[in-house]
Amino acid sequence: MLNNSYVHESKLFTLLRALNTQEIDEFSLWLASPIHNTSGRIRQLYEVLKKSEKGLDTPCTKFDILQYSGAAPIVAKHRDLSPKEEITVRQLMHKLNTQVQKYMAWKKSEEDEFESKRLFIQTLFDKKLYKLIPNELRKIEKKVMSSPIRDVPYHEVAFDLAELKFGFGIVTGNRKNNIEAQAVIDTLRQSSLSKILKYYCSMINLENLRKVEYHYPFIGFVGEYMEKNEDKNIPCIRVYYSLLKLLREDNPQYYYDLKDYLFNNLEMFSIQETRQFLNHMTNYCTRSIQKGSRNFIEEKQEVYSIGLETKCWSTGVYFSTPQFLSIIINALLLDKTAWAEQFVEEYQNTLNPSTKKDIINYGNTLIAFHKKEFERAHDFLTKIYASGDFAYHMQYRILLIKIHYELKGLNIGNTDSHSINYELEAMRQYVIPTRNKKMSEARRKSYNNFVKIFKSILERHKKLIYKEKVSPKSIEKLKEKLQNISPIVERAWLQEKIEELMEQIS
Predict the structure, then answer these.
(1) Mean local confidence (pLDDT), 477-506
(2) Cβ–Cβ contacts within 10 Å for residue 401, how many?
(3) Is the model's pTM score more than 0.85?
């Protein structure tokens, strides 16, 4: 006999859980059609899964699959499976998995109007129904040209359309096909350029973030071509070329050129494309801020505001967790506390449900800390579920250390036993290369430097608690050390704590 193991984390259940309410009902109709499905057991299995309290979100065993499909009596007690039943379960799950994949592919095709039309026109070609093709081409061309969007997918569609028209001219022997041939060449070039520039930007951005290098043998030719030809005035190509120059040369003027053109032409780009542009811009702002250009905090806030207005971070996807937290942090840097609170309230339901509570609690911790409500900040932070597995583990630890320090709970009786000592040591241990091999060296140094500086602050703070002498020269040296150390997180807060020490001894 074989184990009656759980299957609710299988690929099949993952796909089924991805269906929305409308799709769940629509898939029932799909399975009811003999064109798609001829298995009554498959249909029964899905209907029971859909309606059962055990359904898609709770544990489900292989024996449940047998019962739901009718292959085992519904009243039978759970038990291990025989080899034959094991095969039956695999077949049932495979067949239902295949059906849901086919349904999802069909659904995507139905949503893509151009692709559906293209496939229909291709069918007309295959069946030699040439008389019907010109009218279909005119309808699809009118649809494509009437769209205000001029992003990368638009240029791909424009090329596909030109290719269809050129192919039709070849088949029918149209003597005017030279015009269509030129259109194929032009749209192919523009489609290729827009896509090449898009991925060059993505790769160079990764280089900036991860300190790696990629090989771009064609990039020099692209740059020379762009400077000399009119394709640089095509909206999508212009924006990506401006972005490419910004990423490669790090000239703020390119940022402002990009911002000016993009913000005045947002209607030309889809939400998905806009999201890509704004993500690149916020990354540039972050790098500029890290280099000391404080004016880019305001710039970053403006980019975030545009992103929220266009709903590009919360349409069709869960709100990006890093972006969600970064928006809060940036607003607090500008002392826009009320704005940050309103943002959390308004957008919390756009987060992934599986991490929503932790992220909201973390965001509220940041806001409470900024308001110097340290007890409240601590309460929010301790509500984060399983902090050891929290995606922002290091930020969590740093924030906890800061809260402990700000609560001023250190005294003569607990200087060595206070939790802040253990948190600081845990942070130091966490960034040791042999214990955390996935962490980048830049991030590791940044956290290590925080530990070193804060440890020095804490040592001086403990001396003051014991009424020991701390010389101004010692604190000046620490201040100078902080100024010269890089990279480091929480530089401004550390600077503030050093200044407080200086005030205490003066």
Answers:
(1) 91
(2) 22
(3) no
